[in-house]
Amino acid sequence: MKRIKQIDNLFVSALNNNVFPGAAFAFSKRNGNAYKRLINYYGYAQLEPKKKELTTDTVFDLASLTKVLATVPLLLSLIDKGKIGFETSLGDIYVDCPEDKAEITISQLMSHCSGFVAHREFFNTLILLPEIERKKSLLNIILKDNLITPPGSVHCYSDIGYMLLGLIIEKLSGKKLSELANTVIYKPVGLEKDLFFPGTDSRHLEYASTEKCPWTGKMLTGAVHDDNCRAMGGVAGHAGLFGTLFGVLSMAECFLDQWKGRGRHPAYPDTLLQRILEPVGNSGWTMGFDQVSDKGSSSGNYFSKKSVGHLGFTGTSLWIDPLRDCIVVLLTNRVHFGKENWKIKKFRPVFHDILMKEE
Questions:
Q1: Which has the closest alpha carbon to 104: 63, 61, 65, 142?
Q2: What are phi and psi of 186, to 5 degrees?
Q3: Which end of the chain lies in a sparser environment, N or C, as judged by fewer CB atoms within 10 Å?
Q4: For 65-85, what is each residue's pLDDT tens digit?
Q5: Same domain, 58 and 112
Q6: Percentages helix, strand, coil for the chain, rounded to the nearest 5?
Q7: Confidence of residue 175 (pLDDT cuts 50, 70, 90)
Q8: Integer distance in angstroms from the first to the last C-alpha of the chain?
């Protein structure tokens, strides 16, 4: 009870100090043959143009959680089918791949050591083109872009690497990323209504709004916040996935069960997931997930060193601890106050410490 009161006080303080307009969190710990969950919701899904309260049905823009909740498991499904391998290179996939990128491998793209820069504003070019031409144009732009380090030499978190992975998935499967994620990853575990790319779901849904679109001036509600992804039609390997707290938590529980060898997903074997959750050297990354850093981790001070997690720009995060057999999910729309509102950086470790200290 003391911990719950501390958490409530922390969120009330955060709302009063404009850390975010609204938030939802879940703490899930394995207890025997089931998970014991602590879940709560605070504040507003939207303040402008009018206030909307956040509810259990609120759908969040998950931002870069797309990488680990959609792109990574889809890659594992393709690897399991033999359509690709961790050491498959860009030269194997693209006949006209420039020489400096021909040896970049899938594993290097997944673990952020391909040599690509962290971010580029491709949308400025893409929005001038007809939508049907944008993905082909993006591929050409990425393949011609200058690398900032030799492939495999330096780990630098890169949206561009995951944009490319999304394009590779679509090329090898002949299907849209959004369709594949729905049919291959989410439907088999009953999560197709809780994890999806907008435009693929015709239901009337309550979305947490992010901020105003710089192109139209309209509030982004149910439209992806990431400019590059929005220019690509809202579906990409680095962003575009939306979901409820239940959806993110349930998928994380699937991951943890597979990691611990007590569950399975029909799209790929446990052994593949277990492999990509192993550290890549001393990089601080696995093939997709962040690890707990020695200092200043958003996970705080009590997650074990074997834990993995990921953050999303809109104010989302996910951490999984295999030793303590627990998961923490935090979903917010902190960018509703503007993308430069970084107060959540101080909030996250304090929040995680309150939850994890007693475990």
A1: 142
A2: -90, -45
A3: N
A4: 999 999 999 999 999 999 999
A5: no
A6: 35, 15, 45
A7: very high
A8: 14
- Alpha-carbon dihedral 321, 8, 294, 161, rounded to 10 degrees: 70
What does DSSP say about strands 316-321 and 290-291: parallel, antiparallel, or unpaired? unpaired
- Residue 202: pLDDT over 80: no
Q: How do residues 232-287 score in pLDDT, each as one tens digit?
A: 999 999 999 999 999 999 999 999 999 999 988 999 999 999 999 999 988 889 99
What is the extent of the structural domain holding 104?
Answer: 71-175
Task: Give the DSSP letter string of 3-62.
Answer: HHHHHHHHHHHHHHTTS-SEEEEEEEEEETTEEEEEEEEEEEEE-SSS-EE--TT-BEE-
Phi, psi of 262 (to 5 degrees): -125, 10
Q: Which two tokens stand for residue 355?
A: 């939850």
Asked whether residue 145 is domain-assigned, the answer is yes
User: Domain for residue 185, yes or no?
Assistant: no
What is the chain's alpha carbon radius of gyration, rounded to the nearest angstrom?
19
Domain count, the chain: 2
Could you read off the pLDDT of 282-306 as tens digits, one per residue?
888 999 999 998 888 999 999 999 9
Residue of 328, 312, 311 lying closest to 320 (CA atoms):
328
